[in-house]
Design brief:
The chain is mainly alpha-helical. It contains 42 helices and ten strands. Helix 4 (118-129) crosses helix 7 (168-187) and helix 37 (765-778) runs parallel beside helix 39 (803-819). Residues 330-341 have low confidence and may be disordered.
Length: 889
Amino acid sequence: MAGGDLRALFSSNDRQMGVEEAFTNRQGQWQIAAAALTEHLQHIADPGFDVEDLEAPRRNMLVFHGVGGIGKSTLSRKLEAALAGSGQRPAQWDEPAWPQARILPIRIDLARAAGTDFERVVLTIRLALAELGRPLPAFDLALRRYWEHQHPGEPLEEYLRRGGLASRAGKALPQQMQSALADVAQALLLPGTVGSVVGEVTGSLVRALRERRQSVRALAGCARLADLLQAEPGVDALSYYPHLLAWELARLPAGKRVVPVVLLDTFEDIGDRTHRDLERLLQRVVWLMPNVFFVITGRSRLQWAQEGLQGQLDWTGPSAWPGLAAHDIPLPRPAAAGTGRGRQVLIGDFSPEDCEDYLARRLTRDGRPLIGEPVRAVIAGRSHGLPLYLDLSVMRFLEIRRTGRTPQPADFDHEFPALIARTLTDLTPDERHVLRSVALLDSFDLDLATRAAGMTHEAPAMRLIERPFVRENPFGLWPFHLHGLIRSTIRTADDHSDDRWSPRDWHQAAQRAFAALGEQWNNATGPDRMLLTGCLRQGLSVARDFRLDLDWLADAAWAYVSDSVWEPIAPTPRAGQAGTLETAADALVELLSTLARRQHEHRERTADRLTAVTAAGLLPADLHEMGIYYLAKAQRDLGRTGASRRGMQRVADGGGRLAPAARRGLAHLARLDGDFPTALATARTLGWPGRHHRVMGDVWWIQGDMNQAATAYEGARHDADQHGVAGERATSQAQLTFVLAFTDPRRADTELESAQQLLDGLDLRATTLTTQIAALVRDAGTLRDVEDRARALQAEAAAAGIVSAQAMAYLAECFHHAVRNDCTRASAAVSRLRDLTRDHYTYYADIAQFMTDVPLDQDSGARWLDGQARTRERWRALVTARQAHHSGR
C-alpha cells in the first residue's frame, strides 16, 4: 500500500471505509516508455553494437520531469511493477511489445530522506544482478578491491544488513564476489592462502593481462580492466566500474541474458546546478552502461545536452545526448520516443475527468465513492489537475469527518501550505525570492521577473524558468507563467517557511512589479497594442490588489480607449470583493472592464455599472470625465436623451481630452431628435478630434443623400488611416458599406469584405451589427431570407440595448418590402418601427413611409435639411432604382 494510502488508513476509525491507491491518466507516459525501451532493445541487438564504444552518442535513457506532487514517484513505482511482469502492470496500460527479452527493473530512490549515496547506487545495481546466480568477475574483483580499501575490516554482508539492503541477494553477492576471486586465483595457479587476498590476486591478474596470458583469456577481452584494477580504489574509480558491469552483461550466455532498466527517482535531490559532484558520477554510470536503459524522474529537465556544462560533467552537448537536446515530448504521442529524438517528457496535470476518477476511487464505502460529487467537483476545479492537491484534499476530507461533521463543498475553498513547501524545497534563496515576486504576475519574461524581484542580475530568474512549475508559451507577449495552483497558493496560503514574506515584503514586491510593467510600456519604441493591453491587465491587477496609486495606469487607460478596439482587460475579481469600489484602482478596473464588456452586455447593464463608478468619486478628474462621457453614450443608446445631453454637455464644457467627442455626442443627440440643421452645423466645427466626417455622413444618409454620405464616410476612413485609429477606421468603413448597399449592391459586396477584414481582432458590437444590416440592404428585394435575417438582427440589437441598430434593421426590412411592393408587410413593419421609435428616432418611421410612397400617418416633426418633399423623393428613388436593378432595366 502506498504511503498516501497508509495516511488515509490511519486517519479514521471507520473500518468500513475502503482506501485504494488511485493511479490515473499515465497511459501516454507508459506508451512513450515502452516505445523508448523497444528502440533500446533493437539497438543493443544490432550486430554492430559495441558495449565498449565510449564515443557513440547515448540514447539509453528517458527523463520524466514535473512539479512536486505531480506523480513522478508513483509513475516510477508503476513502471517498475509493469516491467517486473507477474501481472502487476496497471490495467489501463497496454501489453509490452518485447515478449522475448528478459527485463530486470532496478528502482533507486535518490531522495535525501532515503540516504542514498553513490556507493549505494552501484551496490543496488549489482545486488539486483546477483539474482542471475553467477559471479561477474571483472566487476566483482574491482568492487572487492574497492571495498577492502574503503571499508577495512567491515564485511560487505554486514554493511548490506545495516544499510537496509540485506535480502536473498544480500547474502549471494559476497559469495559471488568470493567465488570470482577464487576462480581468478585458480586460473593464475596462485596458492590457496594467497587466493583469498584481493590485493595479491588483482596484482597478479593485472600482470597476466598485460602479458596476455592464455590463463586469463576470459577476462582479457575487457580492454580497460587492467587499468581500472591499477587505479586508486576510491569513489572516482568506483564510478568507472559500471563499464565492467556492462561488459559482463554483454557476454552473458543467451540463457542468462537480461536487460536491466534502472529507474532513478527524485533526481533533483542529488545536488544543485552549482554542485554537480554526484550528478557527474551518475552520468558516468549512464554513459558507461549503454546496454542498460535508465528512466530518470525528477523536477527538472536534464541539462546534459548543454555545451556550457563542459568541465562540470564528463559528456555534454547535443552530439553526446541527442535525445536530451530535443524539446519535451508532447502527450499523447506514443511514437515520439521511437524516433530516437525527444527523450524528455513533462509530466502533465490530470484532466478534469481524471481528477474526478481519482477522488471517486480514493475513498469508498460499500463500493461507492465516500467523497460526494459536489465536493469532488470543487476539489477538482481548484486542483488545476495537480495530484498532490487532490491527495491533500482527501486528508482534509478525513480531518473534517473526524470532527463529526459532514464535509461540504465550501470546506474545500482552501489552500495548502504544504504545496509551498514542496515547491520551495530545492530552490536557492534567490530563486525563492524570484518565485514569490513573479507570483504577482500572470506572465513574465526574464527582465520583468528580475525587476519585480529587485535584483541586479538575471541568473536566479534564468534558473527559475527551467523549473517544471514554470510553463512557457513562446508565442506570448511574456513567455513564462507559473502553474496556476502553485501561483495561487504562494499568493494566498499561510506560509510557514523560514524565509516567508511579511505583508510589507509583498507590498514592496508589488510596487517593483508595477513599476517594471509601467517602464516596459513607456519604453516601447512605437505603438504596441498587445504590450499596452498586457501591461494594463497586469498593472490593474497589482494596483488593485495592493492599493497602489494609479501612476502610469492613467495614461495607459487613455491609450486603451483611444483606439476603440476594446480587448478584454479586466483582471480576475478578488475573492469575496467582486464589485466593491474602495480605491482608485478598483474604480479604474471597473471603468475599463465595463467599457470592454459593453460590447457583450445590454446597455442598461453598462449604464448601471458606469453610474456606480462615477458616483463613487474615486477617480482623478480626467478619468472621472471618461466615465461620465461613456455613461452619456450608453444613455443615448438607450434613448435617454435628456440624461445623455446633460452628461455630454458637462464633458464638453470641461474642455478635457473627451471634449471634442462630447461635442460629437451633442451633434448625435441633435440628429436623434430630428434637428438635422443643428447636427450638421455642429459637425462642421468638430474637426478630426470630433470625427466630423463621420458625423456629417450620419446626417446625410438620413436625408437619403447616399452620395454625399459616402463621400463623408470615405473622408472619415481616410482620417482614421492617417491617425492609425483602428476602431474608427472599421466604423467608418461599416457606415460606408451601409450607404453603398442602398445605391450599388455590387460595390457593397467589396466594401463589406473590407469592413469584415477591418473588424477582425476588434470587439465592436454596434459596428458589427451595422455590417450585417448593410448585407440586408444589399439583398433587399431578393429571396435570400431577408425578412428572417432582419428579425434575427432586430432581436440581437434589442438584446444589446442598441436602439439605433434595432431601428436600422427595421428600416432595412421596410426597404426590402418596398422594393418588392409588398404593401401589407411593409405596413406591418412600419407599424412595428413606429412603436419602437415613439420616444426617439421618430423620423425613422417617416423614412419608411417615404420609401413605400404613402402619406405620413404621423409626422415626426423632423427638420429635414432641404425639406420633407425632397427627402421623400430621394428615398423613393432608392426604391425604384433597386426595382429597376432587379428587373434588368
